[in-house]
Write a structure and sequence with these properties.
Blueprint (H helix, E strand, L loop, with lengths): L2 H8 L5 E5 L3 H10 L2 E6 L2 H13 L6 E5 L12 E7 L7 H14 E10 L16 H11 L1 E6 L3 E7 L3
Parallel strand pairs: 1-2, 1-4, 2-3, 4-5
Antiparallel strand pairs: 5-7, 6-7
Length: 164
């Protein structure tokens, strides 16, 4: 599922967005959807690489880059309209994945959108990155709020909504 499609499905237009993992999603959200984006990553090199693109695109007023761990976020509850994790969960050690989901859901005012590879489509070396147990992911998200699932070719999108 392409980033533009994910942003459309998640309904990001004009919203405040926490983007987990430094990548092109923040640029697309700010440039094409008018989002105020805070993009976090634990990797300083990835943040510096994205920072150059932010400046080149003239999006410094729309995108804030911060070094932070999604499993231990420094933001108050409901700080962002929504949070998007585009393939970032499998970069997190298994022991911290539940904290990752709980924290990202905590700081989302409306919904958490998680996009992850299906087990059969996982493209990386399993020694470097760990597949996400999709059944486990679905169970955690269902426990947090109403969840919708959209199927992609290799990745599926889970939208978990706060209960009103």
């Amino acid at each position: 599922m392409e980033r533009e499609e994910v942003l459309e499905i998640c309904g990001v237009h004009g919203k405040s967005l926490l983007d987990i993992g430094a990548g092109p999603l923040a640029l697309i959200a700010a440039k094409r959807h008018g989002c105020r984006v805070t993009c976090i990553d634990v990797d300083q090199v990835a943040l510096e690489r994205l920072s150059k693109e932010v400046v080149r695109e003239g999006l410094e007023k729309m995108i804030t880059l911060e070094r932070a761990d999604a499993a231990d976020l420094p933001y108050p509850d409901s700080s962002f309209d929504l949070v998007i994790s585009y393939g970032a969960l499998h970069h997190t050690p298994e022991a911290r994945r539940k904290s990752f989901l709980l924290e990202t859901f905590r700081v989302a005012a409306g919904r958490l959108c998680v996009l992850e590879y299906r087990m059969s489509a996982f493209p990386q070396d399993e020694h470097e990155f760990g597949k996400v147990d999709i059944e486990w992911l679905e169970n955690i998200l269902h426990g947090l709020g109403r969840t919708e699932k959209r199927l992609g070719k290799e990745m599926d999108l889970y939208m978990c909504f706060k209960r009103n």
